[in-house]
Specification:
Layout: E1 14-17, H1 25-40, E2 61-64, H2 65-68, H3 91-99, H4 107-137, E3 146-149, E4 155-156, E5 162-163, H5 170-173, E6 177-180, H6 197-208, H7 223-226, E7 238-244, E8 248-255, E9 259-263, E10 270-273, H8 291-307, H9 313-319
Parallel strand pairs: 1-2
Antiparallel strand pairs: 3-6, 4-5, 7-8, 8-9, 9-10
Helix pairs in contact: 1-4
């Protein structure tokens, strides 16, 4: 752990768990899941649904001796964004770097911290393997759809940050999504379209059960994508919202495959060229060369907020370049209803 700006001990980043692997939370959760699935075997004709939520990999990284030295820190490359300068970036990011005591740790320290994060990922991966082997050993694999995702990613020194917070970089917003679905998804199949697991999975589960997806759902079934059939009207951009972590800090974001726009009412907005700057180091918000991209993303985000009844768009009505034909000063898109 480092030292807070006020001189107090900082947040604990990680350490050694002196018990066995079997005593870790990840192992405990996998064990509970397996025990639950054993009860399903009593009625094999009855469909089942099981949600298994691991806390790891997440700060603080407490690992047993068997895992804490699993990866050699000297072999771990540091992320390019660790060279972040915060130039032309919201000042809250600089404050968060101080909150997580980034400068208290050396390059070697960060390599060790990242190695612990990798080991935490491996620990979870091993436990997921136990669950999948149970399906294999009991003849359930061919009839069971398995989905793996996360609620957010993690800053592990990238952009001089840790954990998560008011910084809408891909490090925490681009999350893993893996599925095993015998008979539907081909092994090694990769979908390059925008999928939002946190809202699309609900619609997907309903689709799998032949239950109509309600029209008011924001998410869509991804079954066509898993089959390799991409609907012509599939989303070309993805949207995200943030309301605060340790304190209120509203943000809205639109991301295409090439650019990302972030609206920060409390500070400078952000625009990143994801093709030429995948690490999101240079904020192009004031660069005239990106004027058309900025306007296009701004209007798309504005329309999306109107459509979903997000009153955040009122801020954009007065403070951003939105065409007069798009402006709407009503309290929300549901006002007429």
């Amino acid at each position: 752990r480092g030292t807070f700006p006020n001189g107090q001990p900082g947040n604990i980043i990680g350490g050694v768990y002196e018990g066995p692997v079997e005593g870790t939370y990840a192992c405990f959760l996998a064990e509970r899941a397996i025990e639950k699935m054993k009860s399903f075997l009593n009625n094999p004709a009855q469909p089942f649904f099981l949600a298994l939520h691991f806390f790891a990999p997440h700060l603080p990284y407490f690992l047993p001796e068997s895992h804490i030295n699993l990866y050699n820190p000297q072999d771990i490359p540091l992320p390019k964004s660790m060279n972040e300068t915060f130039e032309n970036k919201p000042i809250v990011q600089r404050h968060y770097a101080a909150h997580w005591c980034f400068d208290c740790f050396s390059k070697e320290d960060w390599q060790k911290i990242i190695s612990m994060y990798w080991a935490d990922v491996t620990l979870v991966d091993e436990q997921i393997g136990r669950v999948l082997r149970f399906l294999d050993d009991n003849g359930l694999t061919e009839h069971t759809a398995v989905f793996f995702t996360a609620d957010h990613g993690a800053f592990v020194g990238s952009h001089k940050l840790s954990d998560k917070g008011p910084a809408m970089y891909d490090d925490i917003y681009r999350i893993p999504f893996i599925t095993r679905f015998p008979g539907l998804v081909q092994p090694q199949f990769i979908c390059s379209e925008f999928v939002s697991p946190l809202i699309d999975l609900t619609a997907t589960f309903l689709d799998l059960c032949d239950i109509p997806v309600p029209s008011h759902f924001d998410g869509r079934s991804i079954i066509p994508l898993l089959k390799g059939d991409i609907p012509t009207d599939w989303r070309k951009e993805i949207y995200a919202e943030f309301h605060g972590h340790h304190f209120p800090f509203p943000q809205r974001m639109i991301r295409s495959k090439t650019h990302k726009l972030i609206i920060n009412p409390a500070d400078i907005d952000e625009l990143y060229d994801l093709v030429n700057d995948p690490d999101e180091m240079v904020n192009q918000i004031d660069n005239d060369a990106y004027k058309r991209v900025k306007l296009s993303l701004t209007e798309k985000l504005y329309h999306h907020l109107q459509k979903t009844g997000d009153n955040f768009y009122h801020w954009m009505t007065s403070m951003h370049n939105v065409s007069a034909s798009a402006q709407n000063t009503e309290s929300s898109s549901f006002a007429k209803k």
